[in-house]
Amino acid sequence: MDLKTTLKLAAGGVALFCMGALVTALAIGRLPVSSALATLTGRAQIEQVVHDYLLAHPDIIVEMTSRLDTQQAAAEDKARSDALFQIGAKALVDPKVAYVEGPANAKITVAEFFDYRCPHCKASLPAMLDLAAKNKDGRIASFGGFAGRV
Fold it and tell me: 76 versus 27: which is more confidently predicted?
């Protein structure tokens, strides 16, 4: 995600949060509706109410950050999944793209994506070697060095 999109998302999140803080203050009675309409006529007053609310409830910032991280991770996962779907299954067993071991007419093909820097990927090597040794009628396609990219 580029910087411009990130800033737009952050600004939108802040705006939504400010509206939520104001509505929450009204809903929990910290700011009576009648006096809110009478006193919150200017931008500076609204900003002061939001400022005071945020100072009184700083844990909301952590919650917002956590939710944004979750949303960004989901968007990145979807983008990777969509990119993989667009590539198609045939590309997964193309020797120009991946290291492929096993017969071309195999009933089962395991596509392995790994990162050379990932300790979990390194730890899976014995299992993959065992799978290849025990299943001579299967095929394994390995895609390495992705570091989180598709």
Answer: 76
